Amino acid sequence: MISSITDIRKDFPILSRTVKGHPLVYFDNAATTQKPQSVIDALVHYYTQNNANVHRGIHSLAEEATADFEATRDTVQHFIHAAHREEIIYTKGTSESINLVAYTWGRQNLKAGDEIIISGMEHHSNIVPWQIVAETAGAKIKVIPITDSGELDMDSFKKLLNERTKLVAVNQVSNAMGTVNPVEEIIKLAHDHGAIVLIDGAQSTMHLDIDVQQMDCDFFAFSSHKVLGPTGMGILYGKKSILDAMPVFNGGGEMIKEVSFEKTTFNELPYKFEAGTPNIADAIALKPALDYITTIGKENIRQHEDALLSYATTRLKEIDGLKIIGDNQHKVSVASFVIEGVHPQDVGILLDNKGIAVRTGHHCAEPLMNRFCIPGTIRASFALYNTKEEIDCMMDALKRAVKVLR
Amino acid sequence: MNHSIAATEAEIVEEFSLFDSWDDKYEYIIDLGKKLAPLPEAFKKDENKVRGCQSTVWLVANFEDGKVFYQAESDAIIVKGLISMLIRVLSGHTPDEILNAEMDFINKIGMTSHLAQTRSNGLLAMVKQMKHYALAFKSLKFEV
Question: Which of A46, A205, A208, B42 is the most exposed place for a label (fewest CB within 10 A)?
């Protein structure tokens, strides 16, 4: 990378702490990334200098807070290459973004007999909202099968598409395996059948270049906390024409134009979907997070993470009976594996005992675990601030754990 | 069983005080897990599951001569080791003794983190389930 890894690590204060007497090795980045000092500073700055409600006040604090709050929208727009700033809706996170689409677009457009296509590697967040609206509407959920190497079976997908398909909702990157899905092809095929497409970008936005116009997705959802920003903040991108036609989501302040007891008219985009006082501080602090990524450069981040993933994958194979789940060539940042004769939870506890944070369990993707007939995996997910030395450290702990557990 | 629950708890605390490192504590728990008598397959059914997120725990209890006897197993070995200690402390006591058990040995041996709500089949869920059984047997006793 252009910036040295030592410099990058200095920007993330948490990386200098110890856990159980060992230097922290943080490999749970697919769950949430750590935050650079600039993000922490932005939160402190808002609460110490600008705390005020946005959009309404005439005083200086409110104006400054509003300017910072709206600046994030411009940054997000450029970060994902949206055509218009009002296509960027603030939400609580990816889950709420998907629920928003399900409860507004879904309720308005889904009818009995319609079909929604999701994939066998979706996070529960991209399964459950569709089940809820499908049940109400009498629509059906169809699932794209997963191959043994943890990729989408595209031939089956093509067969699932038909004139009843109204929506395709898939992730761009699998949280449980790191597999990168061919979303542009999926979107084109879905559009050819008149369906609209939602892309769950929770796991991809940190790693891949996102261009929603080139991708041509109708909706794109991601979370701030997985792109170095604060928790409790997320984004829903939607094409303007579609968002305009959608009914409102939550009712309340901010989302209205005029209210009387007889009739309420609703605000313009994006505010018609942003009821109530928003999550101001976290929205403001998303901007320095995205700025940080842009400054380092996604290409540089990817190169670094790819090197880590390839090194980890090679070294993991030193362990007898270890199997990578999602053993394919189209992956970013995630090594997910099981070890014969050893329960993932036991490994997680013993690695934690050495200060190493990995994720164990089903990763909120139970259908995928069932597909591979496993209760869960051990997942190490890497970020721009991780090092090969940390992988060596994990390998030592892993080998020791396997030895005592078997 | 002659030992009171408190005495067994004290015994375990004493045993753990001999370990210098966390590695040794975990190796001991893993060893207990490996030694725990397996639960007959017939008991490994849904109704005996202690609900959890990461590993599966099956727990069954019998009531004999006014005392509760537990058997349990898990697919994860550390959990199994922890279960083994719980059984050692609680099994063979009356429902009242079990319901009044403080179980503070868990804190004293430094396993507090396993009590966290997030590890829902950590010790907390198991202790709760074991006490539920005791309560059920107690009400059964009064009905007779």
Answer: B42
